[in-house]
Amino acid sequence: MKSSFKQVNSQKKTKRSNYYIPIKMKFWLSHLFSLIWICLSIYLALPWLKDLTEAVSFQVAILIIAGISYLPGYMNAFLIMSLILDRQPHFKNEKPTDTITILIAAHNEEDKIFQTLRYIDNQDYTGNIKTIVINNRSSDQTVNEVLKAKKDLKLEIELLQEDKPGKFHALNYGLNFVETSYVITIDADTLLHPSSIRFLVARMNSSSEEVCAVAGSVLTKNSRDNLLTKIQEWDYFLGIASIKRLQGLYQGTLVAQGAYSLYKTKCLKEIGGWPDAIGEDIVLTWRLLQKHWKVYFEPLAVSFTEVPNSFKHFVRQRARWARGMVEGLKEIKPWQQPQLYVKYLTGINFIMPYLDITYTLCWIPGLILAFCGNFIIVGPMTLLVLPLTLISYSILYFYQRNYVFNRLQLRIRKNFVGFILFILFYQMIMSPVSVYGYIQELFKLKRNWK
Predict the structure, then answer these.
(1) With bands split at pLDDT 50, 70 and 90, how would you rate the model's confidence at 308?
(2) Are 171 and 273 in contact (CB under 8 A)?
(3) I need a labelling partner for 134 at 20 to 30 A (CA). Which of 36, 157, 308, 420 fits?
């Protein structure tokens, strides 16, 4: 996505229907639509089930078809209906002036940290911004770049040193110096749209008291590097954003990502800050939700981050995310979450390892068999999931274009090749990588920050 930013005159409001549908009704209407879809899928898949049962047992056939068709179809149907019903509430005040603190944990970021600080300095936010950079054992010129920014920019910058390795150590050390009501975390390679912080704080101020965090929207800034980054551009723009909107609708965004999120400082301190976990932001968010607090998502609070441009680094990142999800599930089971919506959303994560393993061990080999003329696993029925996927992405594409990008005066880059590869092949990469992450967590292999 194009990231040549302009400041936004945000007084324009989208015209919407006055008819209000309660969240609980949206939740059950989406489930009803999903139930109808899965019933239709089961009926249409009876010949497929019969053929597969002749090759394996009935129980194994059910497990395979459920993992590659029934459950993904149900989840996509639920996502589609939820996106259709979602209506982002208006801001009460689009120009908040709360004093805020930004925490940036930095480890060997000499080529990125100055630019990140410069983009913070260029915010149209009229409240006071205090920025704390925590240097975490950098061996390059990160410290000098921060000192240069402190001299050249108008931004109030404080530089701290944390010698204990690990992002959670750096953030927790920085949290000790936060005296403002709100604190924002930003990765050292994240660039903010000029109106981003304003919209993020405005969403918090427009929310109910029990909202403890608001996740910002994270998109890619280096999508032109190669094919891998072109594919990831669509994952962030459509895949991750659609899940964030779904979770935000039901007041339980499951990851207030460390790359760019706002938190109430008192809530962070009450749960002891960031945990010693490879997915520290995942476990942190689930601990917040367990306290009966809510976590929202603000699509207009746009940031751009650098995504992995090598397959090695991509595997490390996504395996780390998979491990983080497992860490969260081990600490807080879905049924231990106090809110119905969060029980359901974390419950979906509870079955993700099953779906990824089934996809890796059954669907991918089945696809190879299909190319050889054997459609016992992958056949015409599996294509029923594709229309749902395209519909959900189309809904989100038009939302992102009309509500977010047009309003922020951004332009969607032409990346048709990346989109086709994303639709057809991305899951074939993601599921095996996730399984690799589950194996890493099972055997407690070495953690990598990056």
Answers:
(1) very high
(2) yes
(3) 308
278 domain residue, yes or no: yes
Query: Is 87 within 8 Å of 161 (Cβ atoms)?
Result: no
CB 269 within 8 A of CB 194: no
The model's confidence at residue 3, banded by pLDDT at 50, 70 and 90, is very low
Burial class (CB in 10 A: 0-12, 13-18, 19+), 37: buried
In a domain, 71, yes or no: no
CA distance 74 to 329: 22
The CATH number for 410's domain is 3.90.550.10
Query: Does 12 score more than 60 pLDDT?
Result: no
pLDDT at 15 over 60: no
The average confidence (pLDDT) of the chain is 91
Quickly tell me which residue has 């749960």 as its tokens: 271
Is the confidence at residue 6, as pLDDT, over 70?
A: no
Yes or no: say if 38 and 65 are a contact pair by the CB < 8 Å rule: no
Helix ranges (H only) for 276-415 are 280-290, 311-331, 340-358, 364-371, 385-399, 406-408
Print the domain residue range for 140.
Answer: 1-11+91-369+382-450
How is residue 236 written in tokens? 């962030």
- Say if 34 falls within a structural domain: no
Helices 280-290, 311-331: crossing angle, 10 deg rounding: 30
Query: Does 440 fall in a domain?
Result: yes
Count of domains observed in the chain: 1
